[in-house]
Amino acid sequence: MENHSLTVPCLFGIEAVVKKEIQSLGLEIIKVDDGRVTFQGDQKAICRSNLWLRSGERVMLDIANFEARTFDELFEAVKKIPWENYIPKDGKFWVTKASSIKSALFSPSDIQSIIKKAIVERLKIKYNISWFQEDGAEFPLRVFIKKDMVYISLDSSGDSLHKRGYRAFSGMAPIRESLAAGIIQLTHWNKDRIFADPFCGSGTLPIEAAMIGANMAPGLNREFVAEQWKNLIDAKSWMEAVDEAHDLMDEDAQLNIQAFDLDFRVLKIARENAKNAGVEKHIHFQERDMKDFYSNKKYGVIVTNPPYGERLDDERTVIQLYKDMGEQFKRLDTWSVNVITSYEDFERYYGKQADKRRKLYSGMLKTNLYQYIGPKPKRLITKTDN
Fold first, then answer.
1. How far apart are CA 124 and CA 257, in angstroms?
2. Where are the domains of the chain?
3. pLDDT tens digits for 340-372?
4. What contacts 97, CB < 8 A, 6 or more positions away?
5. pLDDT tens-digit map of 116-147
6. Is CATH 3.30.2130.30 the right assignment for the domain spanning 4-155?
7. 59 closest CA partner among 239, 226, 300
8. What number does CATH give the domain 177-219+250-384?
């Protein structure tokens, strides 16, 4: 398959991270929009990006874009697309999601129905059949309409990329894996520094940190719908991408990742999730109160998603928790602290204004990443520096 336009939707606020991840695969960025990053790539790029993208939600093969203000215009434009180049005679195809912003066409169910009908009419003519069994490979479609411009793509991922396959169980209000990975990459942490999460819950943040530190491709433990697309992507491309991911993994990485929580029950879940992810050896889990957390080591990085809102019913408890965090963490004067919360008055009760405040969205929930940036670690002077 020749080079094609590929789009990765992502959570708002994570676009720059996704762009960097795509570029690290040696792929060319076409454009970056709110919640979407588009790049160019061939069939191998589809395989590698599905395996490696940590912060994106899915990899979509862009089929067509055009303007449509009526359902007749939508039908005729979709019917003109050479669907026979993408969907085989026995392919199962449907519009899994349609969304519309500031457009004349706004009914998702009607958009889905019209597009399905138009594809069927096209393929009836091309395959000279009147009925489709749809018992072969799956070809889910996604449609995005903005200001009357229609964008149609094939979803190569299937389940969202945040579903790594390791989280069999979770605690209350778990952070999405893709958001956790994006947040970690927005901090100053790297594998040579201590990583600590004093409210680890089901372990998503420390697990994602361990996967980053060990250069583990997040998609190795799951399947993708495009693995069925034998007419578009050969099996060799998938095998080569998987082999590459195994070769690049640093199984001997020396990581110092600490994960604490007061609830022994969620710690049990966190340990199981880490085991499923294959990173349990990189993470030290411990039942500990945040107020007891301290370290004599310098330049560590705290990344945490403390309880709030749906996890703590009493606002007074939330306020006191944030006050306690401020008192405890100010003792770690060489550390960097990164806190994710939707509580707007966090800085007031934490007792310090953040060095950086980033707006992030998890679905419709707006959250903020408050970043307190400590000093850079002192560079060790070697003989070659003299």
1. 57
2. 4-155, 177-219+250-384
3. 999 999 999 999 999 999 999 877 789 999 999
4. 108, 142, 143
5. 999 999 999 999 999 999 999 999 999 999 99
6. yes
7. 226
8. 3.40.50.150
